[in-house]
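Quarterly update from the structural biology core.
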Amino acid sequence: MVKLMKWPTLSISLAGLLLAGCSNLYQGVYEGNKSYKDSARTPDERAMTPSPGYGTYQKDREKLQQEDAAKEKNESPDFNLK
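Predicted structure, tokenized:
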């Protein structure tokens, strides 16, 4: 009976630990992809042009999304012409 009770507790604890590591999935994917691409570059290339961090990427992405939204707002046709 005791052995049966250990498995659900263990699996719930393990699932909790795994999910805690995935608190920001997109940042993890970005950093992993950046590390993979950096491994293909030479040390000189990495020193001369370091890859931007996730915070910089997120700020640039939000800026582009705002610019696109402003363009769409300005380019929408106005059907209330008199």
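The chain has four helices and no strands.
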